[in-house]
Amino acid sequence: MHCQVNDNELLKRFWELEDEIPMSKERMYTEEERRCEEIFAETTRRDEEGRYTVRLPVTSETPEVKHYRMLRVTFGVASSPYLAVKALQQVAIDEGHMYPMAAEKVSTDFYMDDLMTGCETKEDGIKLYREMNELLAKGGFELQKWTSNSQELLKEMKDFENKGNEDEKEIKESLKIKTDEIIKIVGLTWNRSDDSFTYKVVTPALKEPATKRSIIADISRFYDPLGWVGPSIIISKMLIQKLWLAGIDWDEAVPTEILNEWLTYREELKLLSNITIPRWIGIHTGDIIELHGFSDASKDAYAAVIYCRVIDSNGGVRVALIMAKTRVAPVRQISIPRLELCGAVLLTRLMIEVATVMNIDRSRLQAWTDSTIVLAWLNGHPNRWKVFVANRVSEILSSLDTHHWSHVSSKDNPADVASRGLFPADLIKDSMWFQGPEFLHKKEIEYLKPKDMNTELERSKIKSHGTVTQGSEVIWERFSSLTRMIRVVAYCKRFAFNARKETLEKRLGFLSTLELNEARSICIRQCQAENFHEELAMLHKNENLPKRNHLRTLNPFVDKDQILKVGGRLEHSNLNKLRKHPILIPKKSHFTNLLIDDAHRQTLHGGPQLMMCYLQSRYWIIGLRQLASSHFRKCVTCVRNSNNTQNQLMGQLPSARVTPSRAFKSSCVDYAGPFQIRTSKGRGYKSHKGYICLFVCMVTRAIHLELVTDLTSDGFLQAFKRFVARRGYCSDLWSDNGTNFTGAASELKRLFASEQNSMLSEVAEALATNGCNFHFIPSRAPNFGGLWEAGNKAKPVLGGRYVQSNTWHFVSYHNLKKMGPHDKHQLSNKKESSKSVHPVKSYEVTNKKKIRKHTDELRTVWTARNLKIKLCRSRALLRVPHLSGVDTWGATTSNIVIKSHDVFTDSQICVYYLSRSAY
After folding, report:
1. Highest mean pLDDT: which of 277-281, 642-646, 872-876?
2. Bridge partners of 321?
């Protein structure tokens, strides 16, 4: 509506506010006001709810609204297909009581505006022709282009048409009766002469370049409503799916791989014109009719095909292809068993449709599949499976019961080629597709049921709610081995699984890796629930941990298995999941102790560092370093093999070591060797063992060497005699508990007690006057003989090199005798102080100088002053550069405690003794 006001003054007055005269009882209404009040009272009323209703007068010259109805079926609108079919059916409903035969055919045999039907005899055909024309004429429909495979029936139709009125005769005969041999029916070509269906494939010239638009246009030209050439048509459907997945535009050139496949397929499409499908399937009145359907699936598509099996009165069997349908697999990846189930659903729908059209009882339906999993799903109740499987199983069982389904091998399943695709050249040669499998042609069919049916993957998950109790379970404390605890839990879980699941697939035999991992996860969750229950409760509520919580810095989270793990910033790294997010383990837990003990065993009693490296690949144990070190110190095996044995505080040196005296007056003795020696050079002389007897001065640490041929007491006595003859009498002699020394001690006592001996007179006089006292150190205490052990250690450094330079470590007796004085010279000439950097204070103190000094003054007795100046001064020179660098025993270690377990080692034979001290 459009309105225009010309008076500007009137417009201004419209927006101005007029002065309202206050209402009063004395004031009278004006004529205008009184009229408004009357109109308001006449046109306005108020209902019970307080709403106002106003009646407005409408004055218009518009004519009254009329009602129109569509009396004809129009084409080109959305409702046209429905109206065309509904109009025919409505005519049959309204007038069908007068024409029962035609009314039944209208409701079942019409496809859009085409009637496709048949009759048993010629008389029935004529009757149907007449009733159909009269019935549809009631609704204003006129049937044209009648045709039949019976020439007699066509002649009767012509005669009936000629009997009509003059107006009907004027209609062209081509519109009334079709006499051509080739006729198109709903996209199919029917050859009336041999009563068969054929395909006419016409492919236009190939356009360059091939695009998605051109390929789909060429594919759409081919029409196969009943799926008789489905194995070849599915290839074109797969091509369309590939084109969409390629993501190319409509007019963009297709990829080379798709183009080559399309060109090969396009060239063979012409061969489909050679395929002939008989229209009549050989059914007579009284024959037994069965429908057998087959389904199969592959990763690319799934298909269903139906055959009609006719058994005549003589027992003959005829099999004919009825219908097939193929579908490509969804773009989203689905497992093969699920695609097989989709094929079974497609087959069920198809069989019900065909059985309804052919009026076949459902007891005559039989479905076949080569999937044992699908048969297992059909044999179980739908509520046992997951939603995807349960819905489809319910749909199948609502139409076909379980006893309608049987198993067929893949080689006898004709739907196999339809699910994989077959080029036209190969389809023509495939007799099983058009005639059905061989076993359908037999009089008796063996229906098989598979024995092994595994449906575990599609079993629905049973959800349950359980409460977690806080506190440590006593059962966990019963295990001292992680492996045993995990295996016990795994067996308990297996028992629960086998007792709860209603399936033939029981878990038997040895424990699998999956079962052991599940048991380990149960132990971890139990350990975390006992120690981190507050943190787990907060994380389940999506709450942040408090700032003072000791786990906050680890940014923990709960994974899908309800296990607490360490967060971090390594999500996009190439590390495995456990390295990126290790499992959190508490410090004080029996499970933690078992983990550390297992790591210690797995690393072959490795040290704390190795244990930490092993555990940190999967777990984040709080306080791991302290726990690993503590466990390592408590391991008996590791303590036995550890080199860090306790060293007690050494005792005071004996008086002979700290009292100045003549060289070799107080000595110690030990043996070195053995060496292989010969009595002479040359060939033919045998070698035997020899030893070196070391005499070490207790005061000057000078060394005297003697050669002995064996370890007997007599051999030592001979060496001792030579030592005394060379160095003078020896008042005190220390040694270890060697058998040769203990035997020599008793022999010396006997010699010293006797006045007659065969020793040299000078030695005999000294021994007779002073005697020689043998001292033995405690058993298994080599630290008491450190002085001669050091000399014994230095002997191989010089002498050993000389011996090793000789071939096969053999040396002659004379060479060994010559080597003794030379070694004595080198060992006694060993420096006790380093050369000073000051040219004036440079003075070297050696054991040889002490011996020579003693030889020069052998006739005089050393005084305290001489010792202080000569000997003690040399010792003072050693103090700063040498003695200050020697480690001292400044810390004491605990002694053996009563009722304690201790390990004693013997380094000579590598034996460990575990003992318990008592009172």
Report:
1. 277-281
2. 307
Could you say which DSSP state residue 98 is in?
Answer: T
**Strands 564-565 vs 182-185: parallel, antiparallel or unpaired:** unpaired
β partners of residue 631: none
**Of 575 and 329, more confident:** 329
pLDDT tens digit string along 403-425?
A: 999 999 999 999 999 999 999 99
Contact (Cβ atoms closer than 8 angstroms) between residue 254 and residue 243: yes
Per the CB < 8 A criterion, the answer to whether 406 and 483 are in contact is: no
Mean residue pLDDT of the chain comes to: 77
Q: What is the pLDDT of residues 790-808, one digit of tens each?
A: 766 655 444 444 444 443 3
Enumerate domains of the chain plus CATH numbers: 80-179 (no CATH), 279-458 (3.30.420.10), 473-532 (no CATH), 662-830 (3.30.420.10)
For 28-40, write each residue's pLDDT tens digit: 778 888 888 888 8
Query: Judging by beta carbons within 10 Å of its beta carbon (0-12, 13-18, 19+), is residue 708 exposed, middle or buried?
Result: buried
CA distances from 477 to 304, 467, 586, 655, 732 (A): 61, 22, 16, 60, 64
Report d(CA 257, CA 504) in Å as an integer.
47
> 735 forms bridges with which residues in the sheet?
776
Please give the Cα distance from 372 to 369 (Å, whole number).
Answer: 8
Closest CA to 817 of 705, 711, 716, 722: 705
> Nearest-CA neighbor of 300 among 244, 242, 247, 219?
242
> Residues 110-131: pLDDT tens digits?
877 788 888 888 888 888 888 9
Q: Residue 250 is encoded by which pair of tokens?
A: 């409509």
Instruction: List C-alpha distances in Å: 700 to 479, 651, 670, 853.
Output: 64, 21, 17, 12
SS (H, E, C) 181-218: CEEEECCEEEECCCCEEECCCCCCCCCCCCEHHHHHHH
691 bridge partner residues: 708
- What is the rounded distance in angstroms from the CA atom of residue 793 to the CA atom of residue 701? 14
Higher pLDDT: 163 or 146? It is: 146
Rounded Cα distance, 569 and 575, in Å = 12
Gap between the Cα atoms of 310 and 224, Å rounded:
25
* Spatial separation of the C-alpha atoms in residues 554 and 577, rounded to whole Å: 16
Residue pair 255/246 in contact (Cβ under 8 Å)? The answer is yes
Q: What are phi and psi of 745, to 5 degrees?
A: -60, -45
Please give the model's pTM, rounded to 2 decimal places: 0.46
Smallest Cα–Cα separation from 322: which of 298, 292, 359?
292
Closest residue by Cα to residue 126 from 165, 89, 152: 152
> Following CA atoms 699, 701, 702, 704 in sequence, which dihedral angle do they give, to the nearest 10 degrees?
100
CA R_g for the chain? 58
Residue 766 corresponds to which tokens in the numbers above? 């000294």
